[in-house]
């Protein structure tokens, strides 16, 4: 959980490595669940009005920092909750669950995903060949999804204010309105599912069977 700051996650490591320029963090690994917390640490904040002597230094001591994390092998689910900051997640062979209030999301190579974004752009690059449920819910921002060769999903997508661009999908139903549109389509055999809901922003999808 992060109140503010960017988070970068990379896969293929044997242990958890967290680097922070300032602030406090906690990384707890229990079995196949990795929990990340990054927040305020008031223990180092000067007492009384002493912080006024050097306010920048005092605030840096308690503010959460950016996180750069190497994800250990064997993790099946990675869940990140962040209020503000960009997320870059790459080469992670796990189900990724993200809840981001403000910031951009870039996700590469998850096995499946569940993304909720309030404000910011979302980019996903993945091969969805399983039967898992995948979803993206975005309030404001553009969404781009690129599915690699071997993907097999049943798509249900809608945009309240914006356009939908499809490439490589077999469209079964499409409803265009004056503002916004919805579409149902299939990529490959439609083994898994992909639900995308965008309130304000454009949606671009491409896929290879």
Radius of gyration: 20 Å
Tell me the distance between the termini.
36 Å
Poorly predicted sequence stretches spanning 5 or more consecutive residues? 14-24, 58-64
Strand content: over 45%
In percent, how helical is the residue content? under 10%
Got a strand count? 19
Relevant terms:
209 residues; mainly beta; 9-stranded mixed beta sheet; 19 strands; 4% helix; 58% strand
Overview in brief:
By secondary structure, the protein is mainly β. 4% of the residues lie in helices and 58% in strands.
Structure explained in plain terms:
There is one protein chain. With 209 residues, the chain is mainly β. Helices cover 4% and strands 58% of the residues. The chain has one helix and 19 strands. The longest helix has 8 residues, at 55-62. The two termini are 36 Å apart.
Present the secondary structure layout.
Blueprint: E1 7-13, E2 17-19, E3 24-30, E4 33-39, H1 55-62, E5 67-72, E6 77-84, E7 87-90, E8 95-102, E9 105-108, E10 112-119, E11 122-126, E12 133-140, E13 143-147, E14 153-161, E15 164-167, E16 170-176, E17 181-187, E18 192-200, E19 203-207
Parallel strand pairs: 1-5, 1-7, 4-6, 6-8, 7-9, 8-10, 9-11, 10-12, 11-13, 12-18, 13-19, 14-18, 15-19
Antiparallel strand pairs: 2-5, 3-4, 14-17, 16-17
